[in-house]
Amino acid sequence: MAVSTRSHGTDIKEDPRIDFSFLLGEVTRLLRGAFDHEMEAIGLTRSQWHVLVYVLKMDGPTQTALAEALDIARPSVGALIDQLENSGYVSRERDAHDRRVWRIMPTQLASQRAEAFAQSAERVATQVFASIEDRDLSAAMALLSTLRENLISPTPDRLEKDGNC
Fold first, then answer.
1. Would you say residue 60 lies in a domain?
2. Does 81 reside within a domain?
3. pLDDT averaged over every residue in the chain
4. How far apart are CA 63 and CA 73, in angstroms?
5. What is the signed CA dihedral for 149, 151, 152, 153, rounded to 10 degrees?
6. Low-confidence residues in the chain, pLDDT < 70
């Protein structure tokens, strides 16, 4: 993949990278809104369904593991777990190997409703990706993966700018 080294100048109005960044943020916001609308019909908030999806995907995560996966504070995750527990979607169970640790487990209700969650997600995905070809989706995923890696992994020029060299 070729890397652009040309200068885009200091005029923010003429920098396609900035335009792309703003468009990406807007698309993300709209996509979250579409999922929120679907989940609202099930009676869950954005934060609740986000946590519940991770509980369903992970194998008995701890509150700390959920907080790290969701990139939110541990007390915030605790409050969401409380809400989901009160709604009957999750339960706290002691870890079999360490009695100090509590695992967050999906309940039978969550497992039963997982199909409804999946159908809601499928409706959103069908709408959003209706006119997108598989090859275009693959290219977009590759681009986003590269952007993520560039943000995660320090590069030599970034280390120099930060003074960590």
1. yes
2. yes
3. 87
4. 10
5. 70
6. 1-12, 155-165
